[in-house]
Every structure is written in structure tokens, then in C-alpha cells.
Amino acid sequence: MSGGGSHVTSYASAGVSIEAGDRAVELMKEWVEKARRPEVLGGIGGFAGLFDASQLKRYDRPLLATSADGVGTKVVIAQRMDVHDTIGYDLVGMLVDDLVVCGAEPLFLTDYIATGKVVPERVAAIVKGIAQACEEAGCALLGGETAEHPGLLGPDEYDVAGSTTGVVEAEALLGAHKVEAGDVVIAMASSGLHANGYSLVRKVFFDVAGWDLEREVPELGSTLGEALLTPTRLYAKPCLELAARTDVHAMSHITGGGFAANLARVLPDHLSVRVERSTWTPGPIFGLVGELGSVSRPDLEQTLNMGVGMVALVAAADADRALEILAEQGVAAWRCGEVLDITGGEVELVGDYRSV
């Protein structure tokens, strides 16, 4: 069968560079090393990450918790701004803060980066952010994969995803089974949009309003791009501290679906919650999305976190103590509602948000 003349086809000519991948691994090593825990065995480069599970012997009945997620279209903002060392905080936040709601301590995390072209410095910057966030959350960056997908993704395009594993003592498991009427709803401030609703946000700012990322926005005190790229707040350590020192019954990570839908996930059917919007003022980014895009309040609340990234349901007797502990941990928090002895398992937001 005749071929294409004397032309030699190689993996590199197909768009995949083994050398670039190796260079990326070398550049990321120092950051991965900083996100270790004593239980991690070996180093980067193995086929599988190893974690010494003998520590689980100290648990009477250890429950493993796991979570997988990505960052969604927020990566588009990072790519357009050519800033890649913060998106890792969003990935880690989406992962470990899903674990902590059940009281689980995150143990380790693995990441997956797919890109059209491996640019070693860019991949290393992404991993740097992931590793720094892992260190802040107290979990190890145990391993990962970088895949080059020419033809599927453009040379400057990438996506990030990951999974994480944690552990909680069975008796300490948080959730709907512990929630009681009279529990206080404590809201923890978000750092901004976090990593949800960016398809709506991009449509409003870019397609409807015609703004660019370099636009200085007085209400935000920054450029639009800087505000949109603000990293997700990490709640893992503060929430674990809260669970260890107060009578917390349940927690909810406010991500896609908004406040009401996510809080309803940790409510028993025989109880409900009433939340007072008047207890907080959403940050200006939320108001801008609503005003510029003529987005209704129900749509905003179902899509964005509206200034609350995590919620805890705490026994009334411990509510003040919980607020003190969160303040010690550097997390702005406040009472925003109460669990009611009303059948339905629903969350009702009442009143209007406090104006500035």
C-alpha cells in the first residue's frame, strides 16, 4: 500500500510533545512537594499515588468520603487573562469543601489537566495553585495527570478537574439525621462568585454589556477580570475546627443551585428553614450581574452564591461560640435564619437584602 512519500509521521508531528510533558513535571515538583502529608509515600512520577492508611486504625469506624468536580467555564477567564496560578484554588475549593460538609477531613487530592498544547510553565502554574490550596486545606496533592489533546482543545485552552478523599468517624458524621428544630443557620461569607454560574456571568458582562476584562469597575475596586478571577474561599479547616469545638449538626456548600437548593440537601423532610435576606449585603459583583443582564432575583439566587459560600446548622446554645470560632479562623459569619418545626424539608428566603 502506498504511503505519503518520504514524510515521517511522529507523535510530535501529531501535536503531542513528550519533552514538554517531562519539563512540566520537573517544574511542578517543588509545589507538589509542599502539599505533602506525613502519610504520603514516594514522590511525583509514579503510576499511582500512595497514602499510608494505617492512620485509620485510630478510628472506631472510619467512613471514607470522596468527591469529584471541576472548575467549569471559569477557566476561560484564566486563559483570557493569562493568569493560571489561582484557578487551582477554585478546583480545591470545589472538592474539599464538598467533603467537609459531612465532617470529613480531606486526606488527599488528585488532579487532571487536559490541554491542547502542553506549555510547561503554564501547567506548572496551574499545579502551583492546586498545591498551595491543598496545603491551606490540609490535604496532600497525591498525584495527577496532564494530557495533551491537540485537535480537541486549542493550543491555549485547558480544563481542570480532580477528585479527593477524606475520612470521618461514623459517630461524628454530619447531616440531616442530626438537624433539629431551633438550630441556628450560620452563613459564611464567600470571596465572590467562587466557581459557579460563569456561563451566565460571561454572557451578561461580555455579550450583553460588552465589557472587557481590562475594564476598571469602581463598584468592584478592581478590573472586571480581577474580580471574576478571585479565587474560591477554602472553608475546610475552619469548618473542621467548628465541628470539633461546637455542636454542629449539618453544613452545606453553596455551589451550583444556590443557597436554598443546597441547604435543602441537608434537611430532613419533617423540618424546614427560614432565611432572612436582610442579615447580609451581597457583594457588588452580584448586583452588577443582575442589573446589567436584567436577571431576576430568583435566577440569580438559583445560579450564584449571593455572598454566602458555606452554611452551618448549629445547636442554638452553641451559635455564639460558633461565630467566635469562625472569626478566629478569619471567616466572616453571621446568623441568617432558623430551622423550623414545619414539615417539607424546604428553605424559604424572606425579605430583601440589606442595602449598603
From TrEMBL:
| Cited InterPro entries | PurM-like_C_dom (IPR010918), PurM-like_C_sf (IPR036676), PurM-like_N (IPR016188), PurM-like_N_sf (IPR036921), PurM_cligase (IPR004733)
Domain called PurM-like N-terminal: residue spans: 63-168
What pathway annotation does it carry?
Purine metabolism; IMP biosynthesis via de novo pathway; 5-amino-1-(5-phospho-D-ribosyl)imidazole from N(2)-formyl-N(1)-(5-phospho-D-ribosyl)glycinamide: step 2/2
Tell me its EC number(s), please: 6.3.3.1
Q: Kindly list the GO molecular function terms attached to this UniProt entry.
A: ATP binding; phosphoribosylamine-glycine ligase activity; phosphoribosylformylglycinamidine cyclo-ligase activity
Tell me the GO BP annotations in alphabetical order. 'de novo' IMP biosynthetic process; adenine biosynthetic process
The protein's UniProt keywords, in alphabetical order, are: ATP-binding, Cytoplasm, Ligase, Nucleotide-binding, Purine biosynthesis
Name where it's found.
Answer: Cytoplasm
Gene3D superfamilies per the record? PurM-like C-terminal domain, PurM-like, N-terminal domain
Instruction: Describe the reaction catalysed, as an equation.
Output: 2-formamido-N(1)-(5-O-phospho-beta-D-ribosyl)acetamidine + ATP = 5-amino-1-(5-phospho-beta-D-ribosyl)imidazole + ADP + phosphate + H(+)
- Spell out the GO cellular component terms annotated for this protein, sorted alphabetically and separated by semicolons: cytosol
PurM-like C-terminal domain mapped to chain residues: 180-347
Q: What is its main location?
A: cytoplasm
NCBIfam families named in the record: purM
Which family does the similarity line name?
A: Belongs to the AIR synthase family.
Protein name (database record): Phosphoribosylformylglycinamidine cyclo-ligase
Organism the protein comes from: Mumia zhuanghuii
